[in-house]
Write a structure and sequence with these properties.
16 helices; about 15% strand; alpha+beta; 3 domains; single chain
């Protein structure tokens, strides 16, 4: 028996094409609105990405951002004749290979265009933080990529796996609701024997592309300090720096404190790093064994004050908090804070915001085509591609914030709050007590003094109830 495949109706096919066209028109409209609101054209020009004549650079950038949302690559657009751009692929490749564009300046400019309004709309009392972390930027099948190296992928705990690629070191900002990338650098290896290819020797040493290649072969902690200085210079609103145990060295934390930031980090359980406790150098295990733990099912096991020290004789007070590991209840995890004003609950709550950067890496790799869209060989092209992917993420994060958080309306939100301002807590309690006094006087035949005594007892009871309630919620917040 022969099965004949029925030919789709022409009207049905046209309906699909119409819907696809409408979706792409809506995507283009949103991207255009994002570029206009953040003034990306001016930011690109400040980053030395502009042309004296021909196709504007902002159009090339807009086309690259749009590619991930149309489910088609630039190659397929050209092959199928569906390329809507008024320029060819050579324009795109020249843009991405440019050694003169300062992508760090671009990312910081874009971040400040997004972060500053969000911070002003929520109020300066909200704790914001800068987060550092790295992820594997893999190029497994590559052979001739510039500065390609054999780097360690520590995504699997307890396993040392080496892969071809780079370590994508990223600095981001978060207020607990929105994460925004600030700067990044693709790190190669410091050791020449671990690098498969060297940098292009023909690169002009005066360009930002050459300086980026030098940073790629530097220590990760040195790049962290460089990024923080840039963030401090541009005025990123944050008082704390969060990172995982891979960067938690006492010398690094002390250097960050000198820049004016407090550090909250997870600590390494190693015998190579020690802390001063009452003049004695002790490891984490020795500190845990020497102190009394909190009894019962306490939210954290131990909190103690130590001194961080470096090779130059400098010291810095810090608080170490030990908590139970969720998967293995008999084991513990240690966190450190150089902000001595934060209590244990505040330290754990603020460190919980570090998870935002892990979500960021997952979205960029799984949905925004990080490392999959362009198989370029030059270091500048890889940097440009990553900047495009992060621009996509910033656009999505800002759109999500505007659709879910009314405080994103900025001044409109605060004007509305002024119109319907709630009375303060003390005023409301005073109204309740006055109403209670009137009810008792009208319905109970008791002297005025006894009614006053009853109200005093009622206030004492309410105070005790509120005290227990807030104490319980403070403990719960420490686990979040």
């Amino acid at each position: 028996m022969i099965l004949l495949k029925s030919k789709p109706r022409e009207g049905f096919r046209m309906a699909i094409i119409t819907k696809i066209g409408q979706a792409e028109h809506e995507i283009n409209k949103r991207i255009t609105g994002f570029f206009q609101s953040t003034k990306i054209g001016a930011i690109l020009k400040k980053a030395n990405a502009y042309k004296a004549k021909g196709i504007p650079v902002v159009q090339v950038m807009m086309y690259l951002v749009e590619l991930a949302f149309t489910n088609r690559s630039m190659y397929m657009n050209i092959l199928n004749g569906t390329n809507s751009a008024v320029f060819g692929k050579d324009v795109v490749y020249r843009f991405m290979k440019s050694v003169f564009i300062n992508w760090s300046t671009y990312m910081l400019g874009l971040a400040m265009a997004v972060v500053k309004p969000l911070w002003e709309s929520t109020g300066p009392e909200r704790l914001c933080a800068i987060i550092f972390d790295d992820t594997m930027y893999e190029r497994a099948r590559s052979k001739k990529v510039e500065l390609l190296a054999r780097v360690c992928d520590h995504s699997d705990k307890g396993k040392q796996r080496f892969k071809k690629g780079f370590r994508l070191l990223t600095m981001g900002w978060t207020d607990g609701a929105t994460f925004c990338p600030l700067m990044f650098r693709h790190l190669s290896s410091k050791e020449k024997k671990q690098r498969y290819n060297e940098a292009n020797p023909d690169i002009d040493r005066r360009t930002v592309g050459y300086k980026a290649r030098l940073q790629a072969m530097s220590k990760a902690t040195d790049i962290v300090m460089h990024m923080l200085r840039e963030a401090k210079k541009i005025g990123v609103p944050a008082k704390h720096v969060l990172f995982d145990s891979w960067f938690s060295y006492p010398s690094t934390m002390m250097a960050i404190k000198k820049l004016g930031y407090s550090v909250i980090a997870r600590l390494k359980d190693t015998t190579k790093i020690k802390y001063l406790v009452n003049g004695t150098k002790m490891t984490l295990k020795e500190i845990y064994a020497a102190n009394k733990k909190r009894p019962g099912r306490a939210r954290y096991l131990l909190s103690t004050t130590v001194l961080l020290y470096d090779s130059e004789g400098g010291t810095l007070p810090a608080r170490i908090v030990f908590v139970r590991e969720r998967s293995k209840r008999k084991k513990w995890i240690a966190f450190v804070s150089t902000d001595m004003e934060l209590d244990e609950g505040g330290i754990l709550t603020l460190y919980g915001k570090r998870w935002d950067i892990e979500v960021f890496f997952k979205i960029c790799k799984s949905y925004l085509k990080l490392g999959k869209e362009f198989q370029c060989l030059s270091y500048d092209s890889i940097t440009a591609h990553t900047a495009v992917v992060m621009t996509r993420y910033v656009m999505l994060a800002l759109d999500k914030r505007h659709s879910e958080d009314p405080r994103s309306l900025s001044q409109v939100f605060w004007h509305c709050c002024d119109e319907v301002a709630d009375k303060d807590f003390a005023y409301v309690i005073d109204l309740i007590l006055k109403a209670l006094h009137e009810v008792l006087c009208e319905n109970i035949s008791l002297p005025e003094s006894e009614i006053s005594n009853l109200i005093d007892l009622f206030v004492d009871k309410i105070s005790a109830c509120f005290s227990r309630f807030f104490s319980k919620n403070k403990q719960i917040a420490a686990l979040v």
